[in-house]
Specification:
By secondary structure, the chain is α+β, with helices and mostly antiparallel strands. It has a domain at about 25-115 and about 175-220: Arc Repressor Mutant, subunit A. Helix content is about 55%, strand content about 15%. It has 6 helices and 5 strands; from the N terminus they run H-H-H-H-H-E-E-E-E-E-H. The chain has helices at about 1-20, 30-50, 55-65, 70-80, 85-110, 175-220, and strands spanning about 115-120, 130-140, 145-155, 155-165, 170. The chain has a 5-stranded antiparallel beta sheet with strand order 1-2-3-4-5. A hairpin with a 2-residue loop joins strand 4 (about 155-165) and strand 5 (about 170). Helix 5 (about 85-110) packs across helix 6.
Length: about 230
């Protein structure tokens, strides 16, 4: 019985070691971001070639958002007020800030016009867990623009927790306004302000979409303006 137990344990150890050896190594953060960018831009170019609109919401949800750490981003933006908020308030802040950032990123993607994005070589130390992945956007008729990603190693892989465009932090730009909202109305006041802003953005997006669809709607309504 003892021999069988030892044999079984040895087999289990060998199987585990084999599984670890065969498991793919975690992607380098620069390779991860470069591959992600290539895949996303390929979808946009393919849709443009086929003259069909890109579903930026689906593109964000399936490709881009999984590599962003929105909790970390929200903690940075809310700063010391994060520790003063309850778990429920923190969850609401993350959800609202996530929506705000997704709208901003989707808008940037929708304005893409076939620029080239190049990632700079990254020197990655074996024990490094926090670093910056640097990229440059080559634009026709304009100066190159830098986009840097602050990333950290997590149990779920490398995650982005801030984006700097031309040296300006996307997350830090919200810190002063967030602090002002908290001083004026507390944490709940900040949550309400974010919620109101997201609703406003939704309304503006719907208005823009309605303006784009108006000519087609008029065709199907016999030339008269459709009623809402």
């Amino acid at each position: 019985m003892r021999t069988a137990l030892v044999t079984g344990l040895a087999a289990g150890i060998l199987a585990a070691a084999s599984a670890i050896a065969q498991a793919p190594a975690p992607a380098r953060p620069d390779v991860l971001m470069s591959a992600l960018t290539t895949e996303v831009l390929a979808v946009i170019r393919r849709d443009a070639a086929a003259e069909r609109p890109t579903d930026f919401t689906q593109l964000m949800e399936t490709k881009i958002l999984p590599v962003f750490d929105f909790e970390h981003m929200t903690r940075i933006a809310v700063a010391r007020n994060w520790r003063l908020s309850s778990a429920a308030q923190q969850a609401a802040l993350i959800a609202q800030f996530r929506t705000l950032l997704v709208r901003a990123y989707s808008s940037a993607l929708s304005s893409y016009r076939d620029e080239r994005i190049e990632y700079k070589p990254l020197r990655l130390a074996a024990a490094e867990t926090d670093l910056v992945v640097k990229s440059v956007v080559r634009r026709r008729g304009a100066e190159p623009m830098s986009i840097d990603y602050d990333m950290e190693s997590t149990p779920a892989g490398w995650k982005v927790y801030d984006v700097k465009i031309a040296g300006v932090s996307l997350v830090m730009t919200y810190r002063d306004s967030f602090a002002a909202e908290v001083r004026a109305g507390g944490i709940d006041g900040l949550i309400k302000a974010l919620s109101d802003k997201n609703r406003q953005n939704d309304a503006e997006r719907d208005k823009t979409l309605g303006a784009k669809l108006a000519p087609f709607l008029m065709l199907y309504s016999g030339g008269s303006r459709p009623r809402l």
